[in-house]
Write a structure and sequence with these properties.
Layout lengths: L4 H15 L5 H7 L4 H8 L15 H22 L4 H23 L13 H15 L4 H21 L17 H9 L21 H19 L4 H20 L12 H24 L7 H7 L2 H23 L6 H17 L7
Helix pairs in contact: 1-4, 1-11, 1-12, 1-13, 2-3, 4-6, 4-9, 5-6, 6-9, 7-9, 9-11, 10-11, 13-14
Length: 355
């Protein structure tokens, strides 16, 4: 795959936002109540309770969006090397299976047995990835049509879910909704220590469907990048998507809720992703300012490793620092710096985890 600096830098930015959870800014803000700067930083390192969006809420849609952005580059490279459709699709299915398995594994690290849930970022991407691949060589018009069908169909399914006597927006409230009803059936098909009832955060399996919509938006963006489309087009699409999501939200048709990935969220977050992509592209490709992005590229070129380091190695690193050097060295900034150094060590030795 031919590397694209914009993709790697944007992906590195997203992964660093995720890894920076080790800074524990919300807990720090609680220790100094009333500090406006800490309150601002804490808000943007937390997920909103339900409706709305923080910077932290943009991590998962950006990661999903970038999967789509990278696909045209990957497909072009593999097709140029002579790979057949059958070989490409079999690799896609394998990659999908591995992503789902990794997501389940990470959700099971503190469980008594395998925790079969499918709301993890990797799992959600894995469930939708084969469909994204099939759209990878379609025309942009076809991709937009499929996106519209996905969002309209998903929105209609939520709206038609029976809630007698409840107001319209109750269909997208936490608790009794389509996502919960589906998982109460689906997740109990797997072995569990006790019956599945509900995810306390409101997340669920079916969100992979509109997440696929986010990946399709990334696919469209990736094709624009490969075609060297003028910067204006990214901003036009960002504005169109943001306007669509905000209209659905403020018109009372459906709210912008990341946890259940409403179509309004897909549009609004997609617009945000286009803005991020346009910003990185402007700085790196239009202006040619590249040196500043190196720390991000180190992370972005090894995003799967960064994901594992943040989820699996953060506590062991902190514990080792605390045991051998004392509590002062186990602080969040030191742990984050060591995580980056580990990724830099891998970068220098060309050790990249790929699926």
């Amino acid at each position: 795959m031919s590397r694209n600096l914009t993709i790697d830098a944007y992906r590195g930015f997203v992964m660093l936002l995720m890894m920076a959870e080790v800074l524990r800014l919300p807990a720090l803000a609680r220790q100094y109540p009333g500090n406006p700067l800490l309150d601002f930083l804490a808000f943007h390192q937390s997920h909103v309770a339900w409706e709305g969006c923080s910077l932290h809420d943009m991590i998962q849609p950006s990661f999903s969006f970038l999967v789509g952005v990278a696909l045209p580059y990957s497909l072009a490279s593999r097709v140029a090397s002579g790979a057949s459709f059958g070989k490409l699709f079999s690799h896609t299915l394998w990659r999908s299976l591995v992503l789902v398995a990794m997501g389940i594994f990470l959700r099971s690290t503190h469980s008594k047995q395998t925790n079969f849930t499918f709301e993890d970022t990797l799992t959600q991407i894995g469930l939708g990835y084969p469909f994204l691949f099939l759209l990878g060589r379609a025309k942009a018009r076809t991709q937009w049509i499929v996106l519209a069908i996905i969002l309209a169909g998903y929105g209609a399914a939520w709206a038609l879910y029976p809630l007698p006597g409840q107001p319209w927006l109750a269909h997208w409230a936490k608790g009794d909704n389509l996502l919960v009803a589906f998982d109460a059936w689906f997740l109990n098909l797997f072995p569990r220590p006790e019956p599945w009832v509900i995810h306390k955060g409101g997340y669920g399996t079916l969100s992979f469907i509109p997440t696929l919509g986010t990946m399709i938006l990334g696919l469209i963006a990736g094709q624009l990048l490969r075609e060297q489309t003028p910067q204006r087009r990214y901003l036009e699409l960002a504005g169109m998507l943001l306007a669509g999501g905000l209209f659905l939200h403020f018109a009372g048709i459906m709210p912008i809720v990341k946890r259940i990935w409403t179509p309004a969220w897909t549009l609004a977050a997609g617009g945000g992703c286009f803005l991020f992509l346009a910003g990185f592209r402007y700085l790196l490709e239009v202006r040619g300012w590249t040196r500043w992005a190196f720390p991000l590229v180190v992370v972005g070129m090894n995003s799967i490793a960064a994901y594992w380091i943040a989820h699996v190695l953060e506590d062991p690193i902190a514990d080792s620092l605390r045991i051998h050097l004392g509590a002062a060295f186990a602080s969040g900034p030191v742990v984050l710096a060591l995580e980056w150094v580990l990724l830099y060590w891998m970068y220098r030795r060309r050790l990249f985890l790929k699926v």
